[in-house]
Specification:
mainly alpha
């Protein structure tokens, strides 16, 4: 990693992480206001599509052949994103934004560790060792202590 990426990558991902609960709360309230969490999710995706198209205007587009040559498995990411947005929009008003996001975080910790350990989807393999397991257990305990569910 270069010096600038050592600072910019964590900063970008931290900001993205800050935005996830904000997005969840906003979309949950939009769903309540519209009386339909699915409609709120569709609005979110439309706004995201517009933003993505605007960003694409500033980059070189891949050819349709390049897109179609990509493994179909990787297109499932869109389904996972739709599931996340729909589920968080429906669950957050009923369970609390904090509780919903903390369980999303716990799921991300588990999934990311498995992906890293096995080097899935082209990720760099990072074996799960004792220290990492302890860290994951402490993070999971922190999630449960911060959002005690009873």
């Amino acid at each position: 990693m270069t010096g600038s990426s050592q600072l910019s990558y964590p900063a970008i991902t931290l900001i993205a992480g800050i935005g996830i609960p904000i997005m969840a709360a906003m979309n949950a309230h939009l769903g309540a206001r519209l009386g339909n969490p699915v409609a709120a999710s569709v609005v979110l995706f439309l706004v995201g599509l517009i933003a993505g198209v605007m960003v694409l205007g500033f980059t070189d587009l891949p050819s349709s052949a390049t897109v179609l040559a990509a493994p179909r498995l990787y297109f499932l990411g869109g389904l996972l994103m739709a599931f996340y947005v729909l589920s968080i929009t429906w669950v957050a008003p009923r369970f609390g934004v904090g509780n919903a996001i903390f369980f999303v975080l716990l799921g991300q910790l588990i999934s990311a560790s498995i992906i890293d350990h096995f080097g899935l989807f082209g990720a760099q393999a990072v074996p799960i060792e004792g220290r990492r397991i302890i860290g994951l257990v402490l993070m999971a305990a922190g999630v449960f202590l911060a959002r005690r569910i009873v």
